[in-house]
Amino acid sequence: MKIGADTPAVITGGASGLGAATARNLAASGAPVLLLDLNVEAGEALATEIGGTFIQTDVTDGDQVAAALKGQAPRICICCAGVAPGARTVSRDGAPHDAAMFERTVQINLMGTFHVAAQSAAQMAALPPLDSDGTRGAIVMTASVAAFEGQIGQIAYGASKGAVTAMTLPMARDLAKSGIRVNTLAPGLFKTPMMEGLPQEAQDSLGAAVPFPARLGDPGEFASMVRHILENDMLNGSTIRLDGAIRLAPR
Ligand SMILES: NC(=O)c1ccc[n+]([C@@H]2O[C@H](COP(=O)([O-])OP(=O)(O)OC[C@H]3O[C@@H](n4cnc5c(N)ncnc54)[C@H](O)[C@@H]3O)[C@@H](O)[C@H]2O)c1
């Protein structure tokens, strides 16, 4: 798919971090960008910066997603909205994992991705093909290396991201007839507000644990990988790690 004025993109979590970097990358090639996020201030500021549009949307709410996507006709759907809370299966004081917290994590990371991907795909499927292959659009979802090596305290996060990974191939198969490709990126450790919440010392030691290059990833590196996925028409149904060879230790 060639990215440009005729490939509108919807990007969830687009107000921050990996989603924001992807928005800047695609907008730089002239793609009209629609940012969906909870964060109004950052979303509106980025929309102004890149000449895009922002609609405050809670991705866990299918009706809000439908209202935001009404009449948009996206060719590109990027799902980056996510949260990474930590809690153990049984806490130090003996209490079982809070079920509401587990459910909320699954709602945002899995159901939010499902709502936006399925509703975007329905719109793409109704559009005319863009090329002789019959391409109508492409979807890129965001999992995490925690889908494969969830750490201590990551049962909710690991489960939600594992499900996004497991959804990738069946979604690609479902949408093949409509000319829509579906792939997932599983990032390692990237320097975003999600990570910048940690003390600098913790960030440095996480970066040093990456085999090569021994640093946190730059959100621009995530964005250029999304871009490659969009542009390479043979990439379909895969989850791709982008992680400097890190394999997460138990803690
Ligand atoms: N940063 C990393 O190292 C890393 C590693 C692996 C996976 N990821 C994943 O990448 C994605 C982006 O993470 P990031 O690091 O850019 O984080 P971030 O916190 O900078 O951005 C996440 C965005 O999602 C939005 N969001 C949260 N809940 C939402 C909801 N219900 N509806 C709409 N928007 C919502 C937030 O407002 C925020 O703008 C997440 O899915 C995260 O799990 C990040």
Give a verbal description of the structure:
The structure is a single chain. The chain has 251 residues and is α/β, with parallel strands linked by helices. Helices cover 43% and strands 14% of the residues. The chain contains nine helices and seven strands. The protein has helices spanning 17-27, 40-50, 62-69, 99-125, 146-149, 155-175, 193-196, 200-208, 219-231; strands at 9-12, 33-37, 53-56, 76-79, 137-142, 180-187, 239-242. β1, α1 and β2 form a beta-alpha-beta unit. The model has no long low-confidence stretch (mean pLDDT 97). Bound molecules: nicotinamide-adenine-dinucleotide.
Tertiary shape: globular
The count of strands amounts to 7
Can you write the helix and strand succession as a string?
Answer: EHEHEHEHEHHEHHHE
Number of domains: 1
CATH class: Alpha Beta
- In DSSP terms, counting alpha (H) and pi (I) runs of 4 or more, how many helices? 9
Q: Estimate the strand proportion.
A: 5-15%
End-to-end Cα distance, whole Å, is 40 Å
Mean pLDDT: 97
Low-confidence runs of at least 5 consecutive residues: none
**Ligand names:** nicotinamide-adenine-dinucleotide
